[in-house]
From TrEMBL:
<protein>
    <recommendedName>
        <fullName>Orotidine 5'-phosphate decarboxylase</fullName>
        <ecNumber>4.1.1.23</ecNumber>
    </recommendedName>
</protein>
<keyword id="KW-0456">Lyase</keyword>
<dbReference type="InterPro" id="IPR001754">
    <property type="entry name" value="OMPdeCOase_dom"/>
</dbReference>
<dbReference type="GO" id="GO:0044205">
    <property type="term" value="P:'de novo' UMP biosynthetic process"/>
</dbReference>
<dbReference type="GO" id="GO:0006207">
    <property type="term" value="P:'de novo' pyrimidine nucleobase biosynthetic process"/>
</dbReference>
<dbReference type="InterPro" id="IPR013785">
    <property type="entry name" value="Aldolase_TIM"/>
</dbReference>
<feature type="active site" description="Proton donor">
    <location>
        <position position="96"/>
    </location>
</feature>
<dbReference type="InterPro" id="IPR011060">
    <property type="entry name" value="RibuloseP-bd_barrel"/>
</dbReference>
<dbReference type="InterPro" id="IPR018089">
    <property type="entry name" value="OMPdecase_AS"/>
</dbReference>
<dbReference type="Pfam" id="PF00215">
    <property type="entry name" value="OMPdecase"/>
</dbReference>
<comment type="pathway">
    <text>Pyrimidine metabolism; UMP biosynthesis via de novo pathway; UMP from orotate: step 2/2.</text>
</comment>
<keyword id="KW-0210">Decarboxylase</keyword>
<feature type="domain" description="Orotidine 5'-phosphate decarboxylase">
    <location>
        <begin position="17"/>
        <end position="270"/>
    </location>
</feature>
<dbReference type="GO" id="GO:0004590">
    <property type="term" value="F:orotidine-5'-phosphate decarboxylase activity"/>
</dbReference>
<keyword id="KW-0665">Pyrimidine biosynthesis</keyword>
<dbReference type="InterPro" id="IPR011995">
    <property type="entry name" value="OMPdecase_type-2"/>
</dbReference>
<comment type="similarity">
    <text>Belongs to the OMP decarboxylase family. Type 2 subfamily.</text>
</comment>
Length: 285
């Protein structure tokens, strides 16, 4: 496939820099008047597919909310991935996998290998067994034209204890993750393209990017920014958090968009309007 960074740039240019979260947790499923069951999960998920496919550039299903139903739930996730990709919509499987050696290789094969029913266009991963432990996923993503989004600065209150910690005079733990992604993206950046290794940086992390001296723009990474909308991230906060890296940002909104359901037209309208607002925010800098 065409490299992930290139495909992501084309998708955001066409549809705007929104990643629509597909999070069928109990509260949302029941708010839609559905039973919290495999049948309710499937109805919820496929309503989102109908609303988003071909109208939103990127969709991010949260794997945990499918896994909770066992193999039947994973089968629904496989259908979501297949149907969205068939419509040309990019899929980021939000599974946050991270391990070492042969186990990391197996996760990579499950979510990034050609022919795997769980392989979308990108996968979220955790680097906190060491960025280098992700090498099987990093290499397979590059080989198959897929991408990764590596957790760097998350907005949960427990995150800073690890991510802001100083390693030595070279900088913070988060800085080492950014440096790893920058090294893997160097060839793409030299060509003036986005790399295939993205970073997850919360839209509500405040001044952490600046405080830690992170140069996200120079790293050439796509930036997945969860927390936009119901979790408190706004157009203004996205501008403040990311500054010169704003054109690389893919803002993720789940609850705010999904609250417009279960009507397909209303759900689609909310997603498209959110994407256009984000596009205008990026354009205005």
């Amino acid at each position: 496939m065409t490299p992930f960074g290139t495909r992501l740039r084309a998708a955001t240019d066409t549809f705007g820099p929104l990643c629509a979260g597909l999070d069928p947790h109990r509260g949302l499923v029941e708010a839609w008047g559905l039973d919290y069951s495999v049948a309710g999960l499937e109805r919820f998920a496929m309503t989102c597919v109908d609303a988003f496919a071909g109208h939103v550039g990127v969709v991010k299903p949260q794997s945990a909310f499918f896994e909770v139903f066992g193999s039947a739930g994973v089968a629904v996730l496989e259908r979501v991935v297949a149907d969205l990709r068939a419509a040309g919509t990019l899929v980021v499987v939000d599974a946050k996998r991270g391990d070492i050696g042969s186990t990391m290789q197996a996760y990579a094969d499950a979510y990034l290998a050609d022919g795997s029913p769980l392989a979308g266009d990108a996968l979220t991963v955790s680097p906190y067994l060491g960025y280098g432990a992700l090498r099987p996923a990093l290499d397979l993503a590059a080989a198959t034209g897929r991408g990764l989004f590596v957790l760097a600065l998350t907005s949960n209150p427990e995150g800073p204890a690890v991510q802001h910690a100083r390693l030595d005079e070279s900088g913070s733990v988060a800085g080492s993750v950014v440096a790893g992604a920058a090294a893997d993206n160097a060839d793409a950046v030299a060509r003036g393209e986005l790399g295939h290794v993205g970073l997850v940086v919360g839209a509500t992390v405040g001044s952490a990017v600046q405080d830690l001296g992170l140069d996200l723009a120079a790293a050439g990474t796509p930036i997945l920014a969860p927390g936009f909308g119901a979790q408190g991230g706004s157009l203004d906060s996205v501008r403040r958090v990311f500054g010169p890296a704003l054109p690389q940002v893919l803002a993720s909104s789940s609850r705010d968009v999904l609250s417009a359901g279960p009507d397909v037209a209303a759900l689609r309208e909310r997603a498209v309007a959110t994407a256009e607002a984000l596009r205008e925010a990026v354009a205005s800098g």
